[in-house]
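fold description:
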Amino acid sequence: MLAFGQHLRQLREARGWSQQALADVADVSKPTIYRIETARYSVTLDVLVSLAQALEIPLAELVSFAGPAPRPAVEPGR
């Protein structure tokens, strides 16, 4: 969730939008944008669709982002 929140923030800031501006265009509340960006809210499909439409990008692009780096495997006994 944190990686998605950071991705959303980058998309929003690349457009020069405040959280309120994105909220207005996506027809969601500003606290919802804040909660998504700070990983305090599990975003629902309807909100994802609204965000993609507001940002004028395909939904697939909105949810395509680099997640956290995988942790290296630890061999048993080490």
The CA atoms of residues 3 and 71 lie 15 Å apart. The chain has one domain: 2-62. Residues 2-62 form a domain with the 434 Repressor (Amino-terminal Domain) fold (CATH 1.10.260.40).
